[in-house]
Amino acid sequence: MNIETERLLLREYNLNDVPFIFKLMNSEGWLKNIGDRSIKTLEDAEAYMQKNYLSSYEKHGFGPYLVTLKEDGTPIGSSGLYKRDNLDFPDVGFAFLSEFANKGYAYESAQAVMKYAAEKLKLQTIVGITLPENSASIKLLKKLGLAEIGTYKYEDGEELLLFST
Is 41 strand, coil or helix? Predict the structure, then answer.
């Protein structure tokens, strides 16, 4: 699975990406907007990837994808689809290192993921979830064509806004 946009390449994660996942999941933006997943070591990052990323590719045929710059292969973030047990439809998600924020990469990659979901995976409905105070994600979900339809209670009990196509 490879997705190419004007500036980006997206591909499935593999175990060579553990150091990047460790860095991303401990970044300020991830911790603030997504939450602490207790990734304190590279071993934690590898176990998390095995359980939540690699298994998703096998089970669902999709998951989160590593986003790299096309020009030099620099890993800059993650964009993809997540299937949560208590949501009927996959949700689109994205996270980028702060130095690559506000450059349109999240929109470009998430739009490509949405197109891939519709055309290749034949998914008719995609949802999105975000913290009520995460105005950047709310704006991006709306730009992707999703509309706010209510709230969603995350597995830790946190109440999030729910968007859908």
Answer: coil
